[in-house]
Structures are given as structure tokens and as C-alpha cells.
Amino acid sequence: MLTDAHCRAAKPKEQLYRLNDLRGLYLEVKPNGVKAWRYRFKVNGKGTWFALGDYPSVSLAEARDKCEEARKLVKQGINPVQNRQVERIKREQDSANTFEAVAKEWLALKDWEEVTKRRRLDMLQRVVFPSIGKMPVRQITPAHVLDILSKTAKRGAPTVAAEAKRTMSGIFELAVATLRADNDPVWPVRKALPANKTQHKTALTTAQIGKLLTDFDNHRCGYQVNFCIQLMWWTLARPGETAEAEWAEFDLDKALWCIPARRMKARREHVVPLPRQAVEMLRRLHAISGDRMHLFPGRDDRNKPMSAHSIRQALKVLGWSGTYSPHGTRTTGSTRLNEMGYRPDAIEAQLAHAEPNSVRRTYNHATYLDERREMMQAWADKLELWKRESTGEVSRTQ
């Protein structure tokens, strides 16, 4: 049985030799002076050696511990040499199978429209990837997941946290099914946060509308965010539909915006009449980004559209995030247009809400455009009036 003194005193000879410790552990002394730990074992009647590291980097005590671990494998009929190779391959695979890589694979498998995939990827890039994107998917724990969900909920985005939870669970489900993860770490913490209840924002008052639009005019954000929020209010289009708008969809001479079915929530083409103010703004904007595909090119990649998250970020800076969300534009528009006396059918058509009756849907599409054109011009004029009232240019009459 060896001692540390024996190991230190062992001198190299012309031929390799080994000093026996116990239970198959040897210290191998090579002619070049290198001292290496070796474990002698037999599997299926065949004897072989298993390297445990060099002395003194691996001490005598550590070598005995490693030898004991290898001996346990042998008792199970497992060759330690082959097991090490398998573990190395597994580690290499784990390092290649990062959460981000599996997430993009999961998105590619989804039978979704490209616009939906881009929005989901945008959420992952903002909320999830910064924390666990580069980690091997097998190494992610419930603690990692809970940290992401808690931080997202605490910054006032419970809906985003709920979407992140569902998305991460789907990604881990794919990882488990393809043997790249052992379990779904979302499951143990799935109820850690209060259930997200859909919050229906109340419509903004006319004074609030004027103040909001004035705040954006005075905010030192990029022209893209300001023009995007204006176009959204002038048309009552959804935030994503507006932020990802393409120049090919617009006929400024006819004052029409034709949003293709692939970009619409209901997967039906939507024709939007443009008020005079929108056409004037778009002509100015065309001089800036008309050579691009999108009205509002992305900041980092000019060949991609701006993220609707930019609007939410500006709202947060302006102090509106707890009072108004971009989707609240449509709620406000519907409420105020009804107050202005416009027909609900025309308002619903402008909002691209699905008409369940196919006959009425065809009729609405065929006859409401002229009515909506008049309605949206009156709406844009009202927005201008409310802005002037918010700055005191005109006195309020209501």
C-alpha cells in the first residue's frame, strides 16, 4: 500500500514500472519521469488499464476516489474507458445543443406564419436568451426558469411572462423527446407566479389621447417610433401590423394600405383607408426609408422591420406603460368612434374583426370602404384637435 512519500520518492528507470497500491490501483513511473495513476480491471474476462490522471496533479487520495468510482462501474459490467468516451461525446453534444439552438429548431418545426415566428423569436431574444440562450439545454434548472419568469413579471409584463413560460415548456418538450434533456424544468415552477389574467385596458379619454400624442411629438425617440405610433393611431391597425409594414403594401395616390393575409391575425387581406395626415407623413417617410422593404427598418438589421417592442419601450420611458399599451389604441378607437356616431359594422370592419356570417362578411368588404374612408378622416381630424387642446392651442369644448 502506497504512501505519499513513496509516490514522491519514486524515480524513473530505463524501463516503465508500476508501484501497486491496492485494489487494482497503480502508480506508473515512465522513463521520462512522468508519474501516472492507472487502474487495472477486467470486463468480460479481458484485462485492461484505465488512466486516472498524473501525479502530483491527482493526489494519492484523489486517485483512490477515482479508482473506487471506476470499480463501481466495473461491478455493473460497464467498461470505464468506454464510459468516459460516451460521457465526452455527451458533453460535446450538450455544448452544441444550447437552449437557443433547440429553440430555433422548435420554431422551425411550427406550422405558423413567418410573422408569428418572428414575433415569438423576438420575445425569446429579449426575455429568455440573455439568461439561458447559450447554456446546454440539459443543464437548465427550474431555478433558471423561475428567475426569468419572476424578473419579467416584476417589470410589469405578466402577459410576456406567461408567453415565455409556454414557449420554454414547448422547447423543453422537444429537447426531452429528442433525448437532449431529461425533463422539463418549467413544470416544477409552472404555478410559482399568479395566473395571468387578461387585462382589458379602459379606453383613453380625449384629453389622454391628446397628451399621449403630444408626448410622443416631444419625445426624443427615433423618427421611426414616432411615425409608427402616429400611423397606428390614424389607422387603428395592430402594433405588429404597423411596425412590420412594407412599402409594397401602400398606394399613396389612392390613399390605401393593403395588408396581405400572411400578416393579418385572421389570415385575411385587410384594406385600410389612409387619412390625409397619414398620406402626407408617408410621403415624407418615403424620402427616408423608401429604398428599403419596410417603412420602419430595424435598428440592428436594416433589412428587417422594427420591433413593436420599441413602442412599448418608448411608452415606459414616457411614463405611459401602466396606463396605456399599444393594443389599447384599438379599444380607444372603437369607443370614441362609437361615441362619434359611426356604425358599429364600419368600426368592426376597420378593426379587421372577423364577421362570423360569410354573406355579411362579403357585403361588408364590398360596401364599407367609402364609409370607412370618411370615418377615418374624421378620426384623424379629431386626433389633431385633441393634440391642440392638450397644448392649450384651442379651448376644450367637451
UniProtKB/TrEMBL annotation:
PROSITE patterns listed in its UniProt record: CB, TYR_RECOMBINASE
Domain named Tyr recombinase: residues: 199-376
Database matches in SUPFAM superfamilies: DNA breaking-rejoining enzymes
Keywords from the UniProt entry: DNA integration, DNA recombination, DNA-binding
InterPro entries, per database record: CB, DNA_brk_join_enz, Integrase-like_cat_sf, Integrase_catalytic, Integrase_DNA-bd_sf, Integrase_DNA_bind_dom, Integrase_recombinase_N, Phage_int_M
Coiled coil: none
Record keyword Signal present: no
Leader sequence residues: none
Domain Core-binding (CB), residue spans: 97-176
Gene3D superfamilies per record: 1.10.150.130, Integrase, DNA-binding domain, Intergrase catalytic core
Domain of life (superkingdom): Bacteria
PANTHER family: PROPHAGE INTEGRASE (PTHR30629), PROPHAGE INTEGRASE INTS-RELATED (PTHR30629:SF2)
Family: Belongs to the 'phage' integrase family.
Protein name as annotated: Tyrosine-type recombinase/integrase
Species annotation: Castellaniella daejeonensis
